[in-house]
Amino acid sequence: MIIPKKLPDVGDFVIIKITKILPHGAYARLTEYGMDAYLPISEVSSGWIKNIHEFIKEGQQDVAKVIFVDRERGSIDISLKKATAKNKKDKTDETSEIGRYEGLFNKALESSSSQTKKQQIIEELAKVEHTYNELIEDIFAKKDPLKDLKETQFKDVLYELVAKTIKPKTYTVAYNVELTTTDTQSGIELIKDAFSKIEAQKVEVLYLGAPRYRLISTDESFPKAEGKIKEAQAILEKYKNIEFSIKESKSVE
């Protein structure tokens, strides 16, 4: 956050550190907010828990989901069992990226000798941007989010840093294909022709050992990467003498 929220919202995922374990729950520090939250024993893990110490430890860092917020009292309940492995990875990646982008922001302040005006700059930025991620990504996309910022020297330095440092995000998906042909005469040529058309769609084809292949697609967004795989599947479906099955692969190598 450029200006952090005082409290998270229900449904948010938060970084936590277990600070105190009780028989029927635990307290955890929300590291992004500098406050404590309560973790009921029923939200530690699915199923019956006989000994809570077998599931969590003091000092343990994790990602939890916010399930209750009382804004008047400032009390928060969280859940570990409602945070999936993907939720945890996404939150960890996001937090790491925020730290990196905030580092760029602070480096621009230092390089432009604008440290004394940090709070003023932050308050101006908060009018148009919510997080450091949004700020840096909008700069990278050349949307000029700081066009109205009074501190033009800071703006110029930050824009230059982003241009030199940030690389475009890419998303990679992989699918395994088992492929056979009923054409005993020219089946191999049909398969080569199909893969040639697939590769023309910028989908990489890896040979895993007949009849198994892997299709790998990389693009600037997950939907676009998935879309290329769908295009590849559509190409294979046009060949009447080719039979295939396709499923997502856990590996992209």
In short:
The chain has helices at 85-111, 118-125, 132-140, 152-165, 187-200, 222-237, and strands at residues 13-22, 25-30, 35-40, 61-70, 75-79, 171-181, 203-209, 212-219, 242-248. By secondary structure, the chain is an alpha+beta fold. The chain has three domains: 13-82, Nucleic acid-binding proteins (OB fold (Dihydrolipoamide Acetyltransferase, E2P), Beta Barrel), CATH 2.40.50.140; 86-165; 171-248, EIF_2_alpha (Alpha-Beta Plaits, 2-Layer Sandwich), CATH 3.30.70.
Which parts are unreliable, with pLDDT below 50 for 5 consecutive residues or more? none
User: What is the first-to-last residue Cα distance?
Assistant: 35 Å
Major sheet characteristics:
5 strands, antiparallel
Strand elements, count:
9
- Give the overall shape, derived from the CA principal axes: flat
What is the percent of helical residues? Answer: 25-40%
Number of domains: 3
Overall mean pLDDT score? 91
Structural class: alpha+beta
Task: Name the beta content range.
Answer: 25-35%
Strand order of the largest sheet: 3-2-1-4-5
N to C succession of SSEs: EEEEEHHHHEHEEHE
Please report the number of helical segments.
Answer: 6
Compute the CA-based radius of gyration.
25 Å
What do you see in this structure?
The protein has 253 residues and is of the alpha+beta class. It has three domains: 13-82, Nucleic acid-binding proteins (OB fold (Dihydrolipoamide Acetyltransferase, E2P), Beta Barrel); 86-165; 171-248, EIF_2_alpha (Alpha-Beta Plaits). It is 35% helix and 28% strand. It is built from six helices and nine strands, in the order βββββααααβαββαβ. It has helices spanning 85-111, 118-125, 132-140, 152-165, 187-200, 222-237, and strands spanning 13-22, 25-30, 35-40, 61-70, 75-79, 171-181, 203-209, 212-219, 242-248. Strands 3-2-1-4-5 form a five-stranded antiparallel β-sheet, covered by helices on one side. Strand 7 and strand 8 form a beta hairpin. The longest helix is centred in the middle third of the chain and has 27 residues, at 85-111. It is flat, with a radius of gyration of 25 Å. The two termini are 35 Å apart.
